[in-house]
Amino acid sequence: MRVDVTVNGERRVADDVWEGESLLFLLRERLGLPGSKNACEQGECGSCTVYLDGVPVCSCLVAAGQAHDREVRTVEGLADGERLDPVQEAFIEAGAVQCGFCTPGLVVAAHDLLARVPHPGDPEIREALAGNLCRCTGYEKILDAVRLAASKR
Ligand code: FES
Ligand code: FES
């Protein structure tokens, strides 16, 4: 099947997409956007989080065909050209990245939180990031990064 989808503001078309193919596979393997990571492929880790019509989803759980005629925004699409999004900058500044596998999903989740709640408290931050697993950082630096990004708003 053909999938015609707007990704990061650009219309993209992929042909011969298999019905069981995930949006994550489409983005990474067909559209050359490897920012979203493939860790569990079961909706458990959040490393594949992208926006679908403005709502964060685990792209490993969304069929590519479901994105047809819709809008996807990936971690690559958060930056404004060469200028990183403040959430991306805060992750760097706070040292919230180790292996980096969880980072794209956490950045999208934090970006969504701050768009909804510009100055969240710690419980709200923890709740918003609860679906994103990190096996490296112990989460403290990640919380610091979200607090930092919020403080700069
Ligand atoms: S790879 Fe999608 S939730 Fe883990
Ligand atoms: S930095 Fe390695 S999984 Fe989070």
Verbal overview:
By secondary structure, the protein is α+β, with helices and mostly antiparallel strands. It has helices at 23-30, 86-93, 103-116, 122-128, 140-151; strands spanning 3-7, 10-14, 49-52, 55-58, 71-73. Strands 2-1-5-3-4 form a 5-stranded mixed β-sheet, sandwiched between helices. A hairpin with a 2-residue loop joins strand 3 and strand 4 (55-58). Helix 2 crosses helix 5 (140-151). It is globular. The chain starts with a strand and ends with a helix. The model has no long low-confidence stretch (mean pLDDT 97). Bound molecules: FE2/S2 (inorganic) cluster (2 copies). Residues 38-41, 43-48, 58, 60 line the site of one FE2/S2 (inorganic) cluster. GO terms for molecular function: anaerobic carbon-monoxide dehydrogenase activity. Keywords: 2Fe-2S, Iron, Iron-sulfur, Metal-binding, Oxidoreductase. Its EC number is 1.2.7.4. It comes from Saccharothrix longispora. Pfam families: Fer2, Fer2_2.
List its salient traits.
binds FE2/S2 (inorganic) cluster
Biggest sheet, strands in spatial order?
2-1-5-3-4
Number of helices: 5
Main structural class? alpha+beta
Largest sheet: 5 strands, mixed
What is the tally of beta strands?
5
Estimate the helix proportion, in percent: 25-40%
- End-to-end C-alpha gap: 43 Å
Shape: globular
Q: Please, what is the average pLDDT?
A: 97
- Regions with little confidence, pLDDT below 50 for 5+ residues: none
Hetero ligands: FE2/S2 (inorganic) cluster
Rg computed from alpha carbons, rounded to a whole number of angstroms: 15 Å
Which H/E pattern describes the elements? EEHEEEHHHH
